[in-house]
Specification:
Largest sheet: 9 strands, antiparallel
Structural class: mainly beta
Radius of gyration: 42 Å
Number of strands: 29
């Protein structure tokens, strides 16, 4: 009987609360108040947001100049979450319940939000000279010292790392058949360097990470040995992050548009080139590498006197019947037109590499960097079969030409002095280059001047060559040994007064 009585009382209480909740959900309710600091000063423009429970509907406003705010909620539920915030103040959050009331006042005091940071100790870094040999010497930006950066993207992929092709993008430099000319000077006055030392190459593997600068009038007296343009290339050290680069370039005659005569002169060709390179560590924090390797082969069909191509011969001022008469005469005299392995196309095969290995420097004492040791090697081999092959010469007048380049550079850098005030750098390189030509016919050369009347009616005098190319039968070998020692220091320890003691020796053979 008692349990039944308690159940009736609870049921009556619940039924009595239902009208109150329903009434709260159907009437307008207001939350008002004032926002101040913890000292009582009004906070204007404070953000006030009321979230209705359980629908998650939000109502927002801002406080006025006196800090007062007022939020009106239509069809209120009686249960709300009040959030108040201001810049530089801690936020205020409170649950508001008003089931049987139409309005309620909630004042908020926002304390200052002060961020505390740990103590910071600043210690000046001792100024020391920076090594400049065998590393990146900065970026040239003026007309007399220009660094190639993203501009090579305008060049075809197969010549993107060729020095002559890059020079064509530099104002004041012009490319001639003999090489690059700076302001009209002879290409013989130019100089190519790799990490500040003599370099006999004219291009680089595309996969190696390098920078190239063109200098014409340097202010630094240690940058010399030329009166035209210096092509200064730097291959830097690798690092702990590994990067790989791979490029493949394919040119096919079917993709090249030219006239038939140009095609017989070797203007249409097949070219396949593969480059690979990258930087990274052999051993983390200890041994780094930076390398690039290139393999390429280009083949171009070239007409010769043996083919008697009328259109190709006409470009040299010779009629086909005049050339045929010479061929008949040579046959009657027993003069051969070609050797045993004379090709009908000009083919060039190239293999080149460039790499650098560095031992990472270590700190020896009180922040003084340790010594640096680096080894750079480079090489190139190129063989051209059908060299000097052209329409006005017999096939045997051409030959084979090979060029080779091989070299190595060593670098040692160390700081010395009580606090590492001085840096001494020693770099040395030895390189060898060779060029050799072999004609297909071991005969004296003959030259004939022919007067012809071309199909156009014009009278021309042309030259036809036969026999062996004795000029091609040659071999040139050269070597260079160069050593540089450089000591840098700052006068009075001031970075604005750098001094340098520079010693250089070079032997050429």
């Amino acid at each position: 009987m008692l349990r039944s009585l308690r159940l009736c009382v609870a049921l009556s209480a619940t039924l009595a609360a239902v009208p109150a909740i329903a009434a709260a959900q159907t009437r307008t309710q207001i939350i008002r108040g004032r926002v101040t600091t913890d000292s009582g000063t009004a906070i204007p423009a404070a953000d006030v947001i009321v979230t209705v429970a359980p629908s998650a509907e939000t109502f927002s406003t801002t406080s006025d100049a006196t800090g007062a705010y007022r939020v009106v909620i239509a069809r209120g539920s009686g249960e709300y979450i009040l959030n108040i915030g201001a810049l530089g103040r801690k936020p205020f959050r409170q649950r508001v319940t008003m089931l049987d009331r139409d309005s309620v006042t909630v004042d908020a005091r926002l304390a200052a939000a002060v961020a505390r940071v740990a103590a910071v100790r600043v210690q000046a870094k001792k100024m020391r000279p920076t090594p400049s040999l065998g590393g990146d010497a900065g970026v040239g930006t003026d007309a007399t010292d220009r660094t190639i950066d993203g501009v090579p993207g305008a060049l075809p992929p197969d010549v993107r790392t060729n020095f002559d092709a890059m020079a064509s993008l530099i104002p004041g430099l012009s490319v001639t058949p003999a090489g690059v000319s700076a302001l009209g000077t002879s290409p013989d006055a130019n100089s190519n360097t790799l990490n500040g030392l003599a370099f006999g190459g004219n291009d680089l593997p595309r996969g190696a990470s390098t920078t190239t600068r063109f200098r014409t009038s340097p202010w630094d007296p240690t940058v010399g040995g030329f009166s035209g343009v210096q092509v200064s290339t730097t291959i830097g050290s690798g690092g702990n992050l590994s990067h790989r680069h791979a490029f493949a370039t394919v040119d096919a005659p079917a993709l090249q548009a030219t006239d038939p005569v140009a095609a017989h002169l070797g203007q249409k060709f097949t070219n396949v080139a593969v480059d690979e390179g990258g930087t990274g560590p052999f051993l983390l924090d200890r041994l780094y590498y930076n390398f690039g390797i290139r393999v390429a082969r280009q083949t171009a069909s070239v007409a010769s006197l043996g083919r008697l191509d009328p259109a190709a011969l006409a470009t040299y001022g010779v009629a086909a019947d005049s050339a045929a008469h010479l061929v008949q005469t040579l046959g009657a005299l027993g003069v051969p037109l070609a050797g045993g392995s004379t090709p009908t196309a000009r083919t060039t095969t190239t293999v080149s590499f460039l790499d650098r290995i560095d031992r990472a420097p270590h700190v020896v004492r009180a922040g003084v960097p340790g010594s640096t040791v680096a080894l750079t090697t480079f090489g190139k081999y190129a063989e051209t079969d059908g060299f000097t092959l052209a329409p006005p010469v017999v096939p045997g007048f051409a030959g084979k030409r090979t060029t080779g380049l091989l070299g190595a550079q060593g670098l040692y850098t160390r700081y010395f002095g009580r606090e590492g005030d001085y840096v001494n750098e020693t770099t040395s390189s030895i390189s060898m280059s060779t060029t050799r030509g072999s004609p297909y016919l071991d005969l004296p050369a003959g030259d004939v001047f022919v007067a012809s009347q071309l199909a156009s009616g014009a009278d021309r005098i042309g030259s036809l060559d036969f026999g062996g190319n004795s000029v091609l039968d040659s071999r040139n070998t050269g070597w260079t040994w160069e050593t540089i020692n450089q000591t840098d220091f700052l006068a009075g320890g001031h970075e604005s007064f750098p001094l340098k003691l520079y010693l250089q020796s070079r032997l050429d053979g």
